[in-house]
Amino acid sequence: MAYATPWQVNEVQLVPSENSGYRIRELTAQRFDLRSDWGYLCAAGLSLLTFLLLFQPWVSASGPNGKVSANAFGRIDGFTSSSSQSGGQDAVSISGAWAVLTAMAVAGTVFSVVLYFRVRSQTLSRLVMGTSGAAALFALITLLYLNSKAPELRELTESAANAGLFSWLFGNDVASNLGLGEHRIASAGLDLSATLSALSAFGAALAAAAMGLRKQSITVLPIIATPRPYRAKIAA
Q1: Which residue among 60, 76, 195, 227 is least enclosed by CB atoms within 10 Å?
Q2: pTM
Q3: Are 67 and 75 in contact (CB under 8 A)?
Q4: What is the pLDDT of residues 69-84, one digit of tens each?
């Protein structure tokens, strides 16, 4: 048996152990850490909030002839009086295609986050960033589209009927020709749920992007800068 002596200190060689660094990364990668995974949790939570807000009124209009509102999917609720010249709610056609795309992107984000917590990989991390970014883009397009439909909803509740003493004495046609009729205007605009849904979608995208970039930087740095564990081999 060989023993180390003071004269043999310089003969000690350091030999890296086989795959020791990879084993350490395998054991620590599967552990859930709230401090390092908060971005994906925020992305999933904000995405669910975006999905719920899609069913709330996004644009509404109110006026003398009633009040109507529409959600992101184009469903119109409310009431209008029979004196409205717009012909009722069927006069407005709102497509829900952008809202459907937003809901699909939100579902993809939540599903990707759940898979990432079970199988951690760079592919799933990029998938979370991609789906959350798509959801934010579709939510913004939905917001702009419904905002363009606000004037049509306003016409449903806007009163163009003639009224007053001259209309009662001479009839609506005479009063209209003389310019003596009344025109009551209505108001229309986006609701708070539309703004909150867009903000939550963008918040989810920012959280996913920040966490994904951080994960990539942490993965690259140990391979470049961190040395592998060594074991000492004493020469005889």
Answers
A1: 227
A2: 0.68
A3: no
A4: 999 999 998 887 754 4
